[in-house]
Amino acid sequence: MRNSTQKLTYLQAIIEAQREEMRRDERVILMGEDIAVYGAQTLFDEFDESRLRNTPISENSFTGVGVGAALTGLRPVVDLTIASFVYLASDQIINQAAKLRFMTGGQLKVPLVVRTNTFYNNSTAAQHADRPYPLFMNVPGLKVVAPATAADAKGLLKSAIRDDDPVIVFEDMNLWAKKGEVPVDDEFLVPIGKADIKRPGSDVTIVSIAGCLIAALAAAETLSQEGIEAEVIDLRTIAPMDRETILGSVARTGRLVIVDNSHKVGSVASEIAAVVVEEAFESLRKPIRRVATPSVQIPYNLNLEKQLYPNKDRVAEAVRSLL
C-alpha cells in the first residue's frame, strides 16, 4: 500500500528491493558469491537458478559474466559480498562496463549493478576491511552510491537496477541490523545523484558519506545540547555528486565538516572540500575540516581498529573547532 511504511533492517530492505525488481522485470538476475549466506536465502524459495546463481570465488570472472549478460539485454546484479574483493573485478567494472557505451557511440548499454559491502570495524584485518568507494568516484561512466539508511538502501538499489548505466552500490555491513521505516511501495525509488538533508541546522554543515551518518547525527544531537545547530547532509550518491545541496547548505552556514570512513588521502571528503573551495570559497567563514580514517593499514585487533574511524566525539570536536 502506497504511503505506508514497515520497519525493516538495512539488510532486509536490500533483499526487499532485489525481490521487488525481480518480480517486476524478468530480465533482472542475481549472481555472486555467498548470496545464499548473506541474507538472500528467501529469494531461492521464489526464483530458480535461471534468475539466481551462486558463483565460484572468482570475482573477475563472474563480474565479466555480468557485463556480458548486460550487453545481451539482461539486468544483472553482481554481488561481490566484500568491498575489498572489488579490486579483483576492477578490470571488468572500469575497463569494460564503464567504457563500452562511450566506445560504441551509445550503440551498447551496460545496465549492470555491482553490489558490495564494506566489511570494516569487525576484525576482518587489512585484506578485507577497505572502504574503496573513492577509487570508483574517478571512473567516468560509472555511478557510485552508498546508502546509510534502510529506506535509502531499498530506494537506491531499485533505482540502480532500473538504470541503463553501470552502478556500483557500496553497502555497509555495520548497518545490516539497523532498523528504519521503509515505504511499502513497489515503485519507491530514491533518485541517483541526489543528497538528502537528514537534519536541518544553521551553524555548520556536516556532510556524511556512506556509513558515517550515525556518527554525524549523534554528534549533531550532542552539539545541539550546547546550542550549536548542525545541518547533516547524507551524500547518498558519490558519483554523480549532488553539488547543489552541499553548496546551498554551506552558503547558509558558512562552515563545513566532512565525515568519511575511507582513508583521508584521495577521499570523497577531499573532493567535496575541493568543490566547495572552488565554487563557494566566499561563503566559508572558517577552514574546512575533514574527519576521516588515517592512511594506514587496518589492524586485526579490534581495539586498535575502532580508533581509526570517525566517531561522534571526533565529529563534534571538529565542529567545535570552527566556532
TrEMBL record:
It holds the Pfam family Transket_pyr. Keywords: Oxidoreductase, Pyruvate, Thiamine pyrophosphate. Residues 8-177 form the Transketolase-like pyrimidine-binding domain. One of its GO terms (molecular function) is oxidoreductase activity. Transmembrane segments: none annotated. Its cofactor is thiamine diphosphate. This is Pyruvate dehydrogenase E1 component, beta subunit. The lineage of its organism: Bacteria, Pseudomonadati, Pseudomonadota, Alphaproteobacteria, Caulobacterales.
